[in-house]
Amino acid sequence: MAWSKYQKFLALMMVVTGSINTLSTKWADQMDSKGSDGNVRKFDHPFLQAAAMFLGEILCLLTFKFIFWRNRNGDHQLIQGSQDFNPFILMPAAMFDLIGTSIMYIGLNLTYVSSFQMFRGSIIIFVAVLSTTFLERIIVKREWVGIATIILGLLIVGLTDAIYQSPSEAKGRNSLITGDLLIIVAQIISACQMVYEEKYVSGLNIPPLQAVGWEGVFGFSVLSGLLVIFYWIPAPPHFDHNARGTVEDVVDGLAQIGNNPLLLVAILGTIVSIAFFNFAGISVTKEMSATTRMVLDSVRTLVVWMASLALSWQIFHWPHLIGFAALILGMCEYNGILPRCWQRRVVQEDENQVVNTEADRLEEA
After folding, report:
1. Does residue 233 contact residue 247 with C-beta atoms inside 8 Å?
2. pLDDT tens profile 139-167
3. pTM metric for this prediction
4. Quick count: other Cβ atoms within 10 Å of Cβ 276?
5. CA 223, 228, 229 angle in degrees (round to 5)?
6. CB-based contacts of 221: which residues, under 8 Å, 6+ apart?
7. 235 in Cβ contact with 167 (< 8 Å)
8. Looking at the DSSP assignment, which residues form a beta bridge with residue 34?
C-alpha cells in the first residue's frame, strides 16, 4: 500500500526531528563556554538537558490544548480519546522517564553519539523480558531470535568501543565503556516506563499527545526541585565538571548557555525537536503502525551515525557497521518484517509454541 503525501511528511518529520534531537544534545556536550566562575569548560549538564527535554514534552500538552480548543467537537484524530482520567496516573511513568533520560544524557556525554543511538535499541530486550513477568505475555521463537540478534549487535558495538582506540580520539576506553553501560541501564528504566504505561495507562484511552505532555509537566516539576538539591551535593570524581563540583550546577549551566549563542541554539534545538519528534512519532503510529515507527527510528540511527562521522565527532570503525546491521536485522525479526520466505518457516513454529503453551495452561487448570 502506497503512502499518502501526509504519511510521507510524517515519516520525514520523525527521522529529521529525531536526528536533530540527538545531535543537538551531543552538540551541546561538544561546546566550550565560560561558566559562572569565569572559567571556560565543556558543557556538562545532563540534568539541565533533561529539564530541557521535559520542556519539549510540555509543548506537546500545549499543542494538544490548542487543537482541543480549535476542535471542540473532538473530531481531530490527535485529540480523540477519553478525558475521564486522573493525570497523576502518569506520575510513575514520568519518574521513570526522568531517571532514564538523565542517565542516558550522562552516558551520551561519555560515549559516541552513534553508540548512544545504537544502544538505545536494547530497550526491546528489557521490554520483552518485563512483559513476560508483568503483562503475562508470551515471547514466541521469532522474537527470541530477534532478541538474540540484537544482543549480538550490541556486543559488537560495545567491544568495538572498548578495543578500537585512536590517539586522535579524545575519549578514553573507560569513558566509552562507562557511557555505553549507563545507556543500557537507562534502557532498563525506560522499559519499566513502557511496561507501566501498557499495564496502567493504555486501557484509559488517553490521547497520546496529552499523555506525553502530562509526563513532561510532572517530570519538569520534580526535576526542577531536584536541581536545587543537586546544586549542593558534591559529585563523585569524573562527574564534577562544573563550577561548584556538584551533581548539577544549574547556575553554571545557565551561565554557559548565556555566554555562548550556539549553545543556546543547541538547547533550543533539543526542546523544539523533541516536541515535533513526539508529535511525528504518535502520528506515525496512528496513521501507519508501531512497526513503521520502529523502522523509521532505525533510519534515524543511521542518520545520526553518518552525521557524527561527517562532523568528525568520531572515527569510522568497520565493526560498528556489522553491529548496526545485526541490530537492524534483530529489530526486523522481532517485529516480523523480514522477507516472507523466512517468516513462513518461523510463523508456524510460533503458532505451535502458542498452542502448546495454552494446552499446558489448560492441563494445569
Report:
1. yes
2. 888 888 888 998 999 899 888 877 876 54
3. 0.84
4. 20
5. 90
6. none
7. no
8. 40
